[in-house]
Amino acid sequence: MPAAGPTPLLRRTGGADGPLRIGVLVSATGANLRTLIDLQHRERDRFQVALVASHGTRSPALALAREHGIEAWPGDFDARCGTASAATTPEARAEYRRRARQWHDGLDARMAAWERENGELDLVVLAYHRWIEGNLLTRYHGRMINQHPGDLTVLDGENRRVLIGNDAVATAMRLGHTTTRTSCFLVDGTHDGGAVLCQGPPVPVRPGVDARAQELDQKRLSDRPCLEWSVRAFAAGSLALAAGTHPDASAVVLADGAPLPLGGMRLTAASIPEGS
Protein backbone atom coordinates (compact mmCIF):
# COMPACT_ATOMS: atom_id res chain seq x y z
CA MET A 1 0.00 0.00 0.00
CA PRO A 2 1.51 3.41 -0.93
CA ALA A 3 2.34 5.85 1.89
CA ALA A 4 -0.26 8.48 2.63
CA GLY A 5 0.46 11.86 1.10
CA PRO A 6 0.34 15.24 2.84
CA THR A 7 -2.98 16.66 4.01
CA PRO A 8 -3.51 20.31 3.00
CA LEU A 9 -4.79 22.40 5.89
CA LEU A 10 -6.74 25.09 4.12
CA ARG A 11 -10.19 24.57 2.60
CA ARG A 12 -11.00 27.96 1.09
CA THR A 13 -14.75 28.46 1.12
CA GLY A 14 -14.97 31.85 -0.55
CA GLY A 15 -12.88 31.00 -3.59
CA ALA A 16 -9.14 31.25 -4.08
CA ASP A 17 -9.33 34.95 -4.98
CA GLY A 18 -11.39 36.06 -2.00
CA PRO A 19 -10.10 37.15 1.40
CA LEU A 20 -9.42 34.59 4.12
CA ARG A 21 -12.58 34.73 6.25
CA ILE A 22 -11.70 34.48 9.94
CA GLY A 23 -13.79 33.84 13.03
CA VAL A 24 -12.26 34.61 16.43
CA LEU A 25 -13.19 33.17 19.83
CA VAL A 26 -12.06 35.61 22.54
CA SER A 27 -11.73 35.79 26.29
CA ALA A 28 -9.74 38.83 27.36
CA THR A 29 -8.26 42.07 26.05
CA GLY A 30 -8.37 41.33 22.34
CA ALA A 31 -4.65 41.68 21.57
CA ASN A 32 -4.76 38.81 19.06
CA LEU A 33 -8.01 40.12 17.61
CA ARG A 34 -6.32 43.51 17.12
CA THR A 35 -3.50 41.79 15.22
CA LEU A 36 -6.06 40.27 12.86
CA ILE A 37 -7.97 43.54 12.46
CA ASP A 38 -4.71 45.31 11.63
CA LEU A 39 -4.01 42.67 8.98
CA GLN A 40 -7.48 43.24 7.55
CA HIS A 41 -7.01 47.01 7.43
CA ARG A 42 -3.64 46.70 5.68
CA GLU A 43 -4.74 43.98 3.21
CA ARG A 44 -8.50 43.97 2.79
CA ASP A 45 -8.30 41.79 -0.31
CA ARG A 46 -6.56 39.01 1.67
CA PHE A 47 -8.03 39.01 5.19
CA GLN A 48 -11.50 39.52 6.66
CA VAL A 49 -12.42 39.18 10.33
CA ALA A 50 -16.04 38.16 9.87
CA LEU A 51 -17.24 37.05 13.32
CA VAL A 52 -16.17 37.29 16.98
CA ALA A 53 -17.64 35.27 19.87
CA SER A 54 -16.83 35.03 23.57
CA HIS A 55 -17.72 32.67 26.41
CA GLY A 56 -18.46 35.69 28.62
CA THR A 57 -19.96 39.16 28.59
CA ARG A 58 -17.11 41.35 29.88
CA SER A 59 -14.29 40.73 27.42
CA PRO A 60 -12.95 44.04 26.06
CA ALA A 61 -12.40 42.16 22.81
CA LEU A 62 -16.15 42.26 22.18
CA ALA A 63 -16.12 46.05 22.30
CA LEU A 64 -13.07 46.12 20.02
CA ALA A 65 -14.91 43.97 17.46
CA ARG A 66 -18.01 46.18 17.51
CA GLU A 67 -15.83 49.28 17.21
CA HIS A 68 -14.63 47.92 13.87
CA GLY A 69 -18.07 46.85 12.65
CA ILE A 70 -17.59 43.13 13.28
CA GLU A 71 -20.51 41.08 14.56
CA ALA A 72 -19.73 40.08 18.16
CA TRP A 73 -21.51 37.58 20.39
CA PRO A 74 -21.26 37.56 24.20
CA GLY A 75 -21.77 34.25 26.00
CA ASP A 76 -23.08 32.80 29.26
CA PHE A 77 -20.64 29.90 29.68
CA ASP A 78 -19.88 30.30 33.40
CA ALA A 79 -23.55 30.79 34.29
CA ARG A 80 -24.50 27.65 32.37
CA CYS A 81 -21.47 25.45 33.08
CA GLY A 82 -19.76 26.71 36.23
CA THR A 83 -15.97 26.82 36.37
CA ALA A 84 -13.33 24.13 36.06
CA SER A 85 -11.65 25.25 39.29
CA ALA A 86 -14.85 24.64 41.26
CA ALA A 87 -15.20 21.09 39.94
CA THR A 88 -13.09 19.34 42.59
CA THR A 89 -14.48 15.77 42.53
CA PRO A 90 -14.52 13.25 39.65
CA GLU A 91 -18.29 13.52 39.48
CA ALA A 92 -18.18 17.32 39.39
CA ARG A 93 -15.49 17.32 36.71
CA ALA A 94 -17.52 14.92 34.56
CA GLU A 95 -20.60 17.11 34.92
CA TYR A 96 -18.61 20.24 34.11
CA ARG A 97 -17.24 18.62 30.95
CA ARG A 98 -20.74 17.49 29.92
CA ARG A 99 -22.12 21.01 30.32
CA ALA A 100 -19.10 22.59 28.60
CA ARG A 101 -19.45 20.28 25.62
CA GLN A 102 -23.18 21.00 25.44
CA TRP A 103 -22.51 24.75 25.55
CA HIS A 104 -19.89 24.57 22.80
CA ASP A 105 -22.16 22.35 20.69
CA GLY A 106 -24.73 25.13 20.99
CA LEU A 107 -22.14 27.67 19.85
CA ASP A 108 -21.30 25.39 16.92
CA ALA A 109 -24.95 25.22 15.88
CA ARG A 110 -25.25 29.00 16.08
CA MET A 111 -22.09 29.47 13.99
CA ALA A 112 -23.36 26.95 11.42
CA ALA A 113 -26.62 28.89 11.11
CA TRP A 114 -24.69 32.17 10.80
CA GLU A 115 -22.52 30.67 8.05
CA ARG A 116 -25.58 29.60 6.06
CA GLU A 117 -26.70 33.24 6.03
CA ASN A 118 -23.33 34.99 5.75
CA GLY A 119 -20.91 32.55 4.10
CA GLU A 120 -18.53 30.04 5.60
CA LEU A 121 -15.45 30.80 7.67
CA ASP A 122 -12.08 29.61 6.39
CA LEU A 123 -10.24 29.77 9.71
CA VAL A 124 -11.12 30.03 13.40
CA VAL A 125 -8.57 31.66 15.71
CA LEU A 126 -8.72 31.12 19.46
CA ALA A 127 -7.65 33.68 22.03
CA TYR A 128 -9.82 31.74 24.41
CA HIS A 129 -9.63 30.45 27.98
CA ARG A 130 -11.95 27.43 27.84
CA TRP A 131 -11.29 23.88 26.66
CA ILE A 132 -13.37 22.96 23.61
CA GLU A 133 -14.81 19.53 22.86
CA GLY A 134 -17.51 18.20 20.55
CA ASN A 135 -18.98 19.38 17.27
CA LEU A 136 -17.10 22.68 17.13
CA LEU A 137 -13.79 20.80 16.95
CA THR A 138 -15.13 18.37 14.37
CA ARG A 139 -16.46 20.98 11.95
CA TYR A 140 -13.36 23.17 12.08
CA HIS A 141 -10.89 20.28 12.14
CA GLY A 142 -7.62 21.39 10.53
CA ARG A 143 -8.68 25.04 10.41
CA MET A 144 -8.87 26.08 14.08
CA ILE A 145 -5.69 27.49 15.65
CA ASN A 146 -4.77 28.65 19.12
CA GLN A 147 -2.15 31.04 20.49
CA HIS A 148 -0.47 29.49 23.54
CA PRO A 149 1.90 31.43 25.84
CA GLY A 150 4.42 28.60 26.14
CA ASP A 151 7.16 26.85 24.18
CA LEU A 152 5.47 23.59 23.17
CA THR A 153 8.78 22.03 22.09
CA VAL A 154 9.86 21.62 25.73
CA LEU A 155 9.32 17.92 26.49
CA ASP A 156 9.85 15.80 29.58
CA GLY A 157 11.59 12.42 29.73
CA GLU A 158 8.51 10.71 28.32
CA ASN A 159 8.20 13.18 25.43
CA ARG A 160 5.20 14.96 26.95
CA ARG A 161 4.83 18.71 26.56
CA VAL A 162 5.81 20.53 29.74
CA LEU A 163 4.53 24.08 29.21
CA ILE A 164 0.81 23.43 28.72
CA GLY A 165 -2.20 24.89 30.50
CA ASN A 166 -2.91 28.38 31.77
CA ASP A 167 0.36 29.05 33.64
CA ALA A 168 2.95 28.31 30.96
CA VAL A 169 4.94 31.51 31.50
CA ALA A 170 5.07 31.11 35.28
CA THR A 171 6.06 27.46 34.87
CA ALA A 172 8.87 28.34 32.46
CA MET A 173 10.20 30.97 34.87
CA ARG A 174 9.99 28.59 37.83
CA LEU A 175 11.99 26.04 35.82
CA GLY A 176 14.69 28.65 35.25
CA HIS A 177 14.13 29.33 31.56
CA THR A 178 15.85 32.49 30.39
CA THR A 179 13.38 33.11 27.54
CA THR A 180 9.71 32.47 26.86
CA ARG A 181 7.86 32.35 23.55
CA THR A 182 4.42 31.90 22.00
CA SER A 183 3.35 28.79 20.06
CA CYS A 184 0.55 28.74 17.48
CA PHE A 185 -0.90 25.27 17.03
CA LEU A 186 -3.75 23.36 15.46
CA VAL A 187 -6.53 22.71 17.96
CA ASP A 188 -7.62 19.09 18.32
CA GLY A 189 -9.14 16.97 21.09
CA THR A 190 -5.98 17.13 23.24
CA HIS A 191 -5.04 19.75 25.81
CA ASP A 192 -2.41 21.87 24.02
CA GLY A 193 -1.21 18.81 22.10
CA GLY A 194 -1.91 19.73 18.48
CA ALA A 195 0.60 20.22 15.67
CA VAL A 196 2.63 23.41 16.16
CA LEU A 197 2.63 25.67 13.11
CA CYS A 198 4.83 28.50 14.31
CA GLN A 199 6.66 29.91 17.32
CA GLY A 200 7.15 33.61 17.89
CA PRO A 201 10.55 35.10 18.71
CA PRO A 202 11.96 34.15 22.13
CA VAL A 203 11.52 36.91 24.70
CA PRO A 204 14.29 37.29 27.32
CA VAL A 205 13.21 37.11 30.97
CA ARG A 206 14.24 40.46 32.47
CA PRO A 207 15.84 40.41 35.95
CA GLY A 208 13.27 40.86 38.69
CA VAL A 209 10.26 40.65 36.36
CA ASP A 210 7.21 38.65 37.48
CA ALA A 211 5.23 36.23 35.35
CA ARG A 212 2.48 38.75 34.55
CA ALA A 213 4.93 41.35 33.25
CA GLN A 214 6.79 38.68 31.28
CA GLU A 215 3.56 37.56 29.66
CA LEU A 216 2.79 41.15 28.65
CA ASP A 217 6.24 41.42 27.05
CA GLN A 218 5.57 38.14 25.27
CA LYS A 219 2.21 39.31 23.95
CA ARG A 220 3.90 42.32 22.39
CA LEU A 221 7.04 40.66 21.04
CA SER A 222 6.09 37.04 20.33
CA ASP A 223 2.30 36.69 20.01
CA ARG A 224 1.83 39.11 17.13
CA PRO A 225 4.49 37.83 14.71
CA CYS A 226 3.55 34.24 15.52
CA LEU A 227 -0.10 34.80 14.67
CA GLU A 228 0.68 36.90 11.61
CA TRP A 229 2.94 34.22 10.13
CA SER A 230 0.39 31.47 10.78
CA VAL A 231 -2.54 33.34 9.28
CA ARG A 232 -0.53 34.44 6.26
CA ALA A 233 0.55 30.84 5.68
CA PHE A 234 -3.09 29.72 5.79
CA ALA A 235 -4.08 32.46 3.34
CA ALA A 236 -1.29 31.40 0.98
CA GLY A 237 -2.38 27.76 1.14
CA SER A 238 1.18 26.74 1.95
CA LEU A 239 0.51 24.52 5.00
CA ALA A 240 -0.07 20.76 5.09
CA LEU A 241 0.36 17.86 7.50
CA ALA A 242 2.74 15.02 6.67
CA ALA A 243 2.08 11.40 7.50
CA GLY A 244 4.87 11.28 10.13
CA THR A 245 4.93 12.49 13.72
CA HIS A 246 7.37 14.17 16.10
CA PRO A 247 8.53 12.56 19.37
CA ASP A 248 5.57 14.13 21.21
CA ALA A 249 3.21 12.35 18.74
CA SER A 250 2.13 15.61 17.06
CA ALA A 251 1.93 15.69 13.28
CA VAL A 252 4.79 17.02 11.18
CA VAL A 253 3.85 20.32 9.52
CA LEU A 254 4.87 21.06 5.93
CA ALA A 255 5.40 24.63 4.72
CA ASP A 256 5.50 24.83 0.91
CA GLY A 257 6.15 21.09 0.89
CA ALA A 258 9.15 21.21 3.26
CA PRO A 259 8.88 19.51 6.67
CA LEU A 260 9.27 21.80 9.66
CA PRO A 261 10.91 20.77 12.96
CA LEU A 262 8.96 20.30 16.16
CA GLY A 263 7.69 23.81 16.88
CA GLY A 264 7.01 24.59 13.23
CA MET A 265 8.39 27.84 11.80
CA ARG A 266 10.57 29.34 14.54
CA LEU A 267 10.71 33.10 14.18
CA THR A 268 13.50 35.33 15.42
CA ALA A 269 13.31 39.02 16.16
CA ALA A 270 14.89 39.70 12.77
CA SER A 271 12.10 37.79 11.01
CA ILE A 272 9.20 39.77 12.48
CA PRO A 273 7.06 41.00 9.55
CA GLU A 274 7.22 44.71 8.83
CA GLY A 275 4.60 46.70 10.71
CA SER A 276 4.41 44.27 13.67
From TrEMBL:
Formyl transferase N-terminal domain segment(s): 21-200
Pathway assignment: Purine metabolism; IMP biosynthesis via de novo pathway; N(2)-formyl-N(1)-(5-phospho-D-ribosyl)glycinamide from N(1)-(5-phospho-D-ribosyl)glycinamide (10-formyl THF route): step 1/1
Classification of source organism: Bacteria, Bacillati, Actinomycetota, Actinomycetes, Kitasatosporales
Gene3D superfamilies: Formyl transferase, N-terminal domain (3.40.50.170)
PANTHER family cross-referenced by the UniProt entry: PHOSPHORIBOSYLGLYCINAMIDE FORMYLTRANSFERASE
Enzyme Commission numbers on file: 2.1.2.2
Swiss-Prot/TrEMBL keywords: Purine biosynthesis, Transferase
Pfam families reported in the protein's UniProt record: Formyl_trans_N
Protein name per its UniProtKB record: phosphoribosylglycinamide formyltransferase 1
InterPro entries associated with the record: Formyl_transf_N, Formyl_transf_N_sf
